[in-house]
Amino acid sequence: MSLKEILYKVGIEAVHGSTEISIEKMEFDSRKITANDVFIAIRGSVSNGHEFIEKAINLGATAVVCDTFPEKMIDGITYVQVKDTNKAMAFMAANYFGNPSQNLKLVGITGTNGKTTIASLLYQLFKKAGFKVGLLSTVKILVDDTEYPATHTTPDSITINHFLREMNEVGVEYCFMEVSSHGIHQKRTEALHFAGGVFTNLSHDHLDYHPTFAEYRDVKKSFFDNLPKSAFALVNVDDKNGSVMVQNSSARKLTYALKTYADYKAQILENQLSGLLLKINDNEVWVRLIGTFNAYNLLAIYGTAVELGLDHFEVLRLLSELESVSGRFQFIISDNQITAIVDYAHTPDALDNVLKTINDIRTKNEQLITVVGCGGDRDTTKRPIMAHIATTLSDKVILTSDNPRSEDPNDIIAEMEKGVEPQNYKKTISIVDRKQAIKTACQLANQNDIILIAGKGHETYQEIKGIRQHFDDMETVTQLLKELNK
User: Fold this and answer.
1) What CA–CA distance (Å, rounded) separates 365 from 118?
2) I need a surface site. Which of 4, 180, 231, 469 has the fewest CB within 10 A?
């Protein structure tokens, strides 16, 4: 493909050299460059691609896309100056792979909590309905039945278009995609054609990346601002930010809610550990998922499926067959009747939701023991809040490590401890080693008690000092409960 074709719709400021040259592939990682590639210089939070232009050329790049021309330009190399290299890469990737998002119905799900559950269960529902389906999520990427590991909530635009092209090749009709604030801000979803967008909720998260909550909200909103007229925008109006999301959207606006009037309305009739009895738009359905937060998720799934053309009675039937997503309120009951719940809750709002759900279901004759930590190199302001919520809503709390990354886990736990109020000191202990923390929770638990292990959910690793080592919360607690029950 020629560079000129790849640059279609890219806002070009200046060109040095010819765009009629043939391009093999595009890369933004200079280490992956081979002969006749185009190198896109991205300004990232860790490194600046403009510093690696010379290296990319030495490895065989024949074209460079940048926001500032280098001082020294080499003859025979084409340099293209653009205002925003992230946005340019999104359009270039779409062009290179043949604009694959136009050949299927792509739905983006954004919000603080619920993205993974909604995207994954929509994939599950549409598969059960007999369609070929794609999934781009935090947990994994699925091209119909073929699974690939996920590295980011929203992959880079080259990866997105690569997998969408693969979906085209195997006849995928629908694709459900988690859309993170990072992904929107870094223009990874630009140049994609969406059939619909879903907004779940907005609460405290990613304030390590976004300087203010207002910017975090506005970045999410920009996703809906850019939806085409042909798309639908389905928003949770029980969240005060729901109506804000669609203020400037030209998409067809639809709402869902449990507490207020909406196009898609649900009422919780029963809430048990075995599932929920819901009334959705005047029809009752029993589902295997648990808690108010899942009632919202299921309502978003119902609305999305109906908007995509499925019969509403068929959707209700399929909702009753859905199974929970890995690491999202995933639970086991041991031989001596201790319930252990593993959940990805890593934001104050998510932790509050999960703990309130457990408290709504339990009889109060048992202990609720919570094991929770906070990630390193991330939003530090939520640490005391998370500990405050855990210690307020639990009978016992063990503060521990999550993924400390480059930080000292003792420092993270010390920041969490600041949120523990004096009346809750006695029921709170700190254990740095996560396995030991989970073991202690199991030792403290008696028959019928409930253990919540929050923060890591589906993750099968723990990142300490830049090294990832195997660690699976569900695997660990299952094994420990078996050993203690012998």
Assistant:
1) 33
2) 469
